[in-house]
Design goal:
- This protein has a single domain, classed as MetI-like (MetI-like fold, Orthogonal Bundle), CATH 1.10.3720.10.
- It is about 85% helix and about 0% strand.
- It has 10 helices and no strands.
């Protein structure tokens, strides 16, 4: 009985957290809109009503799909580059020493700093946005993959070598399965960074996307719609994180 009560309490905690956040939102909005009627548009009621309208009318979907396309392309490119580089760093010490200073320097540069160069190099449209997402999300993948390789049990590598496995076979059959949990963790971090970078990147030179829609709603002074899009951004980001968190848990059970 106690176990069932604990389980129900654990399931209720996230809902209680969301309800508390909504209450704080309402209290803050109520405190400010009396002095400034314009701020009433930021209150939960008008914002949630605007979100329901955007979803039911279909106005939100083209922007959401445009953002999802860019984020998936950027993460795909980051994975294609970051995972092999991370494996190479982990298994070959000279390469790690060769790239360490360069990668740490590049990692510390804000991805948004590359925006002018991205526009000059790729023009307007999807390509500069995908580039910014890629360069923002590649570093967690590199670091986590390298950490996963370093954590591989040396006895497994020694056993593989004792069976005359080639370096390629060792990487594919021993290293890659062992680091998948680390890769998923890196991908989860990359999604968080990429989703944050995507929104300001879409405010420059594109005609669709959630970031563009925030800027458009601001220019039209439709503040309820602006907050509604912000809520949508948070919900989609939470959905991304939930899927990857579930994949991590699934892999931890199977590993």
């Amino acid at each position: 009985m106690s176990h069932a009560s604990d389980s129900s309490f654990s399931r209720a905690l996230p809902l209680a957290g969301v309800a508390s956040g909504g209450l704080v939102w309402w209290v803050i909005a109520a405190a400010f809109w009396k002095g400034n009627p314009v701020l009433a548009a930021f209150a939960p009621g008008p914002s949630l009503a605007a979100l329901a309208h955007l979803v039911s009318s279909g106005e939100l979907w083209p922007h959401l799909f445009a953002s999802l396309r860019r984020i998936l392309c950027g993460l795909g490119l980051a994975s294609l580059a970051g995972i092999p580089i991370g494996v190479l760093i982990g298994i070959w010490n000279p390469f790690e020493r060769f790239t360490h200073a360069l990668f740490q320097f590049l990692r510390m540069v804000s991805p948004l700093s590359w925006m002018p160069l991205a526009v000059m190099a790729f023009g307007l449209g999807d390509l500069p946005v995908i580039f910014l997402v890629s360069i923002a999300s590649v570093w967690p993948l590199i670091l986590n993959t390298a950490a996963g390789v370093a954590a591989v049990d040396p006895r497994r590598l020694l056993l593989a070598r004792s069976f005359c496995a080639t370096p390629v076979e060792i990487v594919l059959r021993v290293v890659v399965p062992s680091i998948l949990g680390y890769v998923l963790s890196g991908l989860r971090l990359s999604v968080g960074v990429a989703w944050i970078v995507l929104v300001p990147a879409e405010m420059l030179g594109v005609r669709a996307g959630l970031g563009y829609y925030v800027l458009d709603a601001r220019d039209r002074l439709d503040y309820s719609e602006l907050v509604a899009v912000i809520i949508a951004i948070g919900l989609v980001g939470y959905a991304f994180d939930s899927v990857l968190r579930a994949a991590q848990r699934r892999w931890a059970v199977l590993d």
